[in-house]
Amino acid sequence: KRYTNMLMITGGAGFIGANFVKDWLAQYDEPVLNLDKLTYAGNLSSLAALQGDTRHVFVKGDIADRSLVRQLLSRHRPRAVLNFAAESHVDRSIHGPQAFVDTNVTGTFQLLESVRDYWSELSRQEQQAFRFLHVSTDEVFGSLYPTEPAFTEVHPYRPNSPYSASKAASDHLVRAWHHTYGLPVLTTHCSNNYGPYQFPEKLIPLMILNALSGKALPLYGDGQQVRDWLYVKDHCAALRRVLEAGSPGETYNIGGCSERTNLQVATTLCTLLDTLCPRAEGGSYAAQITFVKDRPGHDRRYAIDASRLESELGWKPAETFESGLCKTVNWYLAHQAWVDDVTSGSYRHWVTQHYGEG
Ligand code: NAD
């Protein structure tokens, strides 16, 4: 039983997964099997442009459902599995960590076991060529002081939030499945992404949409928390490169070389919006910035050193923070229907109609 030229993507209806699937199919004919549970963060309207494209096979389901995943792997026989599926929002992890352990830890474990089972049936040559790419975050490394050097791939793990702890746990499982069972895995640690199709609970889309609807632009604490920012399409390009040329068992940092405080992000966005979409009442959107009580355990600074990916695999981001942000703001301005869909929940109704509640 040979494997086929097909990728299996988990979480491909989420922000980064949907961008990846679309970018992949725009460049290659190789089909994609997309398994997504369609939680509040999964949105099929992000993939609407692929309707009728037979290279995209969507299945609603949970990565923890071993019999479903095993069945899908046997039927479609992908040459690689890319795991984007996760609970991904830090604030939600503080209020309800259970789903984070269920999907990020147990779900990744179950997925690894399903994949190991499938992989063990491939020929020796196919086993060597197979890849399990685990999409992780820089947040597993914890917080940096202002003068500390950026995280490299060998930085110790020091996760501080339930989200980052659950992602760290999943990274360890992935690593162990390589060292113990020989599964050819790749793990990536990427900084904060922004761009089209990001659910408006995350900082950048929240700020854009709140600004335009005259609401407050909330910043935690003093707004001086530092993050590195990467345009989502640059992340997708990095993942394609790691999939193609990364060495099994290795980890790769992905970042934009764009450290900004949250306050800088907000003011840059306001300046962009002031030009693209001036406030009816005049003045700058910056007047809407409001400081709110800080998040418990809020990491002060993340910074990522992505030089390994550049020197070994030749990847560099195409966008600067400013150019990527400009594209993002223009995208949100031009896609009001998508925004209405995710904010009104009407797509949920569509999903229930087409795929049921389960
Ligand atoms: P997202 O929350 O937008 O999307 C997650 C997707 O996973 C959703 O479509 C959801 O329905 C699906 N999902 C959740 N639980 C599932 C399950 N049990 N089975 C199948 N599907 C399930 O997240 P995102 O921002 O696109 O992030 C994707 C991955 O990248 C995550 O693993 C995240 O940790 C990682 N990451 C994100 C960022 C970022 O800035 N967004 C940065 C670095 C790494």
From TrEMBL:
PANTHER family: DTDP-D-GLUCOSE 4,6-DEHYDRATASE-RELATED. InterPro entries: dTDP_Gluc_deHydtase, NAD(P)-bd_dom, NAD(P)-bd_dom_sf. It comes from Gulbenkiania mobilis. The keyword Disulfide bond does not apply. This is dTDP-glucose 4,6-dehydratase. It holds the Pfam family GDP_Man_Dehyd. Keywords: Lyase, NAD. Its EC number is 4.2.1.46. NCBIfam families: dTDP_gluc_dehyt. It catalyses: dTDP-alpha-D-glucose = dTDP-4-dehydro-6-deoxy-alpha-D-glucose + H2O. Belongs to the NAD(P)-dependent epimerase/dehydratase family. dTDP-glucose dehydratase subfamily. The keyword Cell inner membrane does not apply. Its cofactor is NAD(+). Residues 8-326 form the NAD(P)-binding domain.
